[in-house]
Fold this protein.
Amino acid sequence: MADPAFEALWKNVLDRWDDERAHGAFLELCQATDQLAEAAARYRGMKGDRDRSAVAEKRLAGIAIVALAKLEATRSKAPPPRRMGSLILAAAFGLASMAVIAYLMWTR
């Protein structure tokens, strides 16, 4: 089901194409409601319109920047690198265990 606020603001953008405030209100709603992809699709559809293509390109670039910033903000940190000391300790414990087992088998 289509979002009525989204559709109303998009209609306002189409009716007032040269009004920066109309585009700003539409894009604010899209960002707040996670509808940037749909906004991009709408602007992409306007690229074929000779009179509206320049504004559409500008808005698509802005949407891409906002979307990338949002992705960057939600990206999780890389896990910390494993410490070599942990690996050496595990290997030493494993070798010591094998030595104890070999000794016990040898002495029987």
Remarks:
- DSSP finds five helices and no strands in the chain.
